[in-house]
């Protein structure tokens, strides 16, 4: 006698996704699925989990415990196996989500002139001009109060060194390694996500406790 195998759904949640406001969040948006038998995968990918409203804010936590009941309502006899993390952060954005060109130019100018002023103030603090004059004097044997050739080469060297250090020149990368800035942004985003997950989990538990107490009193 052959036994029919229990249908199984393997779920791996994405850590973070971004959707436009007014659009529903489907299971295929937040998770990678592997089903046995495979015929059910397309149906589950289109399973609507929620439709964010204005009261939900711009960050929503979707937990695996919210997903499992909806999968079982669609497939009552299915076994759900979770792989990896048990939650996904959904960021709700207005419009297309593309950055404004004017805002990009403004930020670029602020960073450019801010960095330039920082470098100049540092050079003024350590009296870099006198150091360069002294270096040229040691090399050439004569004192030059304006060693422009040395200063131009030094300035170009700073720019080249920054490009090598950050592994980036416009859209060109020297190799596939992440830049120090990308690593720092990744770590920052991870810390922010962890904080939001903890806060949202506590809020959800508080709401569940309030609902439970209200039901007990009634």
TrEMBL record:
Keywords: Membrane, Transmembrane, Transmembrane helix. Residues 8-93 form the Stage V sporulation protein AA domain. Pfam families: SporV_AA. The keyword Transmembrane applies. This is Stage V sporulation protein AA. The chain crosses the membrane at residues 103-124, 148-170. The keyword Transmembrane applies.
């Amino acid at each position: 006698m052959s036994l029919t195998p229990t249908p199984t759904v393997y779920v791996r949640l994405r850590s973070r996704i971004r959707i436009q406001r007014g659009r529903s969040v489907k299971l295929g948006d937040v998770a990678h699925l592997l089903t046995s038998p495979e015929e059910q995968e397309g149906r589950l990918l289109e399973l609507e989990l929620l439709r964010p409203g204005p009261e939900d804010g711009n960050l929503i936590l979707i937990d695996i415990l919210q997903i499992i009941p909806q999968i079982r309502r669609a497939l009552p006899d299915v076994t759900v196996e979770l792989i990896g993390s048990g939650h996904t952060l959904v960021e709700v954005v207005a419009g297309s989500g593309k950055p404004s060109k004017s805002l990009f130019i403004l930020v670029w100018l602020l960073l450019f002139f801010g960095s330039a002023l920082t470098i100049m103030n540092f050079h003024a603090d350590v009296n870099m001009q006198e150091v360069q004059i002294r270096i040229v004097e040691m090399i050439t044997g004569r004192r030059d109060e304006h060693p422009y050739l040395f200063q131009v080469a030094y300035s170009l060297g700073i720019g080249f060194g920054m490009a090598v250090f950050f592994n980036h020149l416009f859209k060109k990368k020297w190799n596939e390694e992440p830049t120090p800035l990308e690593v720092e942004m990744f770590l920052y985003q991870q810390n922010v996500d962890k904080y939001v997950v903890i806060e949202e989990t506590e809020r959800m538990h508080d709401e569940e406790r309030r609902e439970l107490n209200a039901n007990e009193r009634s």
